[in-house]
Design brief:
Elements lengths: L1 E7 L2 E9 L2 E6 L1 H5 L17 E3 L4 H4 L5 H11 L6 H8 L7 E8 L1
Antiparallel strand pairs: 1-2, 1-5, 2-3, 3-4
């Protein structure tokens, strides 16, 4: 299982998990109570219900580099280009835009 903390505007907003069933995202309960809480994407509005998908959520997949930059990241960190979660955690700690991804650990 792989997990990453998701931040919006440098504020912790939830946890993204990959396990044998796919990908899961859940907003943090404290984040949902904030008056300035913003969703990570218009397709993932604020809710206390978990989001589940067999493939990486488009909002997070779109943060992963493409083309020659993906080739460099993949070869430098020895990550299979199909391992979207590992690439997300390795490459997206400080992205352009308002979302950051910080690894929580691996099992």
């Amino acid at each position: 299982m792989k997990q990453a903390g998701i931040y919006v505007n440098h504020i912790f907003c939830g946890i993204l998990t990959e396990d044998e069933e796919g990908f899961h995202f859940v907003y943090d309960k404290d984040y949902l109570l904030r008056p300035d809480a913003a969703p990570v994407s218009p397709t993932m509005p604020l809710t206390d219900l978990p989001y589940e998908k067999e493939v990486m959520f488009p909002v997070f997949d779109g943060l992963i580099p493409e083309g020659w930059l993906l080739d460099i990241a993949s070869s430098s960190w020895k990550i299979d280009p199909r391992d979207r979660m590992s690439l997300l955690m390795a490459c997206c700690k400080d992205c352009i835009g308002n979302i950051s991804v910080i690894p929580l650990g691996h099992e």
